[in-house]
Design brief:
This protein is an all-alpha fold. The protein has 9 helices and no strands. 70% of the residues lie in helices and 0% in strands. Helix 6 runs antiparallel to helix 7.
Length: 171
């Protein structure tokens, strides 16, 4: 009886091991910790970066809601490309999402020199203040973005989001 159970267990393990070698498209894009497989590429030891490689990686991490990883990538990007507004925007947004408002304030200061007085700048800094709970300041920035481009969809969504934030009690 024990020999039969051991043989069955061995066959079961062999079947599982053979299935583990199979790949299906539904599992290929998954990785540990809920990240997609395309976000796991380790480029920390790379000394040379193509112009947009770090920005592309940072955007991917941000879209996947891996804000800590996108923060690290964009931090490297602003060190390597200090004159690139995309790097600073990504760095500021990532810093905001992980609550590093000291870093995002520094990034917005840089951005004010590069792309200040644009809807993109005002929407981003407004969203930063919305995340901090400073609704009057957020509204002021969103309205500046609206004045510059009344048809901007991002501004409209941000104003709606702010309106919804006011309607719900803080907890």
């Amino acid at each position: 009886m024990v020999a039969v159970q051991i043989r069955c267990l061995t066959l079961l393990l062999a079947g599982v091991m053979s299935l583990a070698g199979c790949q299906s498209s539904s599992v290929d894009d998954l990785a540990a910790f809920g990240d997609s497989a395309k976000t796991l590429e380790d480029d920390s030891a790379v000394a040379f970066y193509k112009n947009d490689e770090l920005i592309t990686t940072g955007k991917l991490q941000f879209q996947e809601k891996n804000y800590g990883k996108s923060y690290a990538v964009y931090k490297r990007a602003v060190a390597i490309f200090p004159e690139d507004p995309s790097a600073w925007l990504g760095f500021a947004a990532s810093a905001d999402m992980i609550g590093r408002f000291d870093s995002s304030d520094r990034a917005y200061l840089q951005l004010s020199r590069m792309i200040g007085n644009t809807p993109v700048y005002y929407n981003n800094i407004g969203y930063s203040h919305l995340l901090r709970g400073d609704l009057p300041k957020a509204r002021r920035y969103f309205l500046k973005a609206y004045e510059l481009d009344p048809g901007n969809e991002t501004t409209a969504r941000n104003l709606e989001l702010m309106k919804n934030s006011v309607n719900f009690a803080q907890r």
